[in-house]
Design brief:
- This protein has two domains: 227 residues, Alanine racemase (TIM Barrel, Alpha-Beta Barrel), CATH 3.20.20.10; 124 residues, Lyase, Ornithine Decarboxylase, Chain A, domain 1 (Beta Barrel), CATH 2.40.37.10.
- The protein is built from eleven helices and 20 strands.
- It starts with a strand and ends with a strand.
- The longest helix is centred in the middle third of the chain and has 21 residues.
- The model has no long low-confidence stretch (mean pLDDT 97).
- By secondary structure, the chain is of the alpha/beta class.
- Helix 1 crosses helix 3 and helix 7 packs parallel to helix 8.
- Helix content is 32%, strand content 25%.
- Strands 2, 3, 4, 5, 6, 7, 8, 9 and 10 form a nine-stranded parallel β-sheet that branches.
- The protein is elongated, with a radius of gyration of 24 Å.
- The chain binds pyridoxal-5'-phosphate.
Length: 368
Amino acid sequence: MRKLTIDLNNVAHNLNTMRNLVNVSGKQVKIMGVVKADAYGHGMLQVARKIEAEGVDYIGVADLSEAQTLRSAGITSRILAWLHDPEDDFVAAIKHDIDVAVSSKEQLLRVQKAAELASKPCQIHIKVDTGLSRNGVTIDELEDLLVSTKSAIADGFVKTVGIFSHLSSTGVKEDLAQIERFELALSMAQTQGVDFELRHLTASDGTLSYPQAHYDMVRIGIGLYGLSPFSDNRAAEFGLKPVMCAEAKVVQTKRVQAGEGVSYGYLYRTPKETTLALVPIGYAEGLPRNASGKAQVCINDKLYTILSRIAMDQFVVDVGDDSVSPGDRVVIFGDCGPTADDLADAAETINYEIVTRIGSRFNREFIG
Ligand SMILES: *Cc1c(COP(=O)(O)O)cnc(C)c1O
């Protein structure tokens, strides 16, 4: 009834496209594939297995439980997790070779304790807040953290693998100011004599916008899924191919008279005698309710706007006098007409939110 097709061959294509894009003129920039939040709704394990097979350098997740899920499923790539609960178990992370982002001295102390318990050093990436004001140590507190890190290294509790930060994507001026602060952080680390194998700053947008800021590795999420990090639907321009296609079948059609109210609240009344088609997709599937009246879907290669209210499980489309029958294919977004960006525009949000909030009632079919 509801089908989500995930084309893993396109994930591989997008990974290699990004790899070619950053590795111009002999550069050797590593790629971290970001698979947090169930790979932005695409299926974390399937995507992780695919990019591992394609030789991705690192896998990035938000939290340790995602990292553990990957390890339990047999993923052997290097993994970094960066968002920790005050109760998170770093011992398990160390035992499973999961790199841990350290955003504060308090976290460093917990990592040290865990390393002692695990009798094995923890591999850390120091997260610097260069101006996003989310996690990460501020420049003001960085020196203190570096000094503590140095003694933790000497005691055998930590190995410093990386130092990283994250851009706010506010604008060029703001991003360049963050790059400058990142440079400052790097020079502070150098002054303290703390070495890092991997300096990494940019996600998809920064990677496409600032070649000077690729450093040793870039962290690619949305680009892996073939979507643009920018609001102007430019994915194809970068050679990226969308991975997710959401579709359903028409479950009922009916002829109704002029003046009939359609769906909750009668946002729409039929202007004339017409055919209504019922589609079993609603906001439970991630079709945003506030896209009612604006979102378009594609039935038999023709676009229709959902003029009535999107409900939890279903919506209704006025197909006029077109011949539409139960069983006909309805593309919500994907390979015919509407893109995730189009739906995002209709819902006044970003493509990230559209794919990440895709519902669990779809049957998932993986290609590749
Ligand atoms: C989610 C995330 C990324 C990936 O961002 P995209 O814009 O999807 O490429 C990279 N780094 C961090 C720290 C993140 O949280």
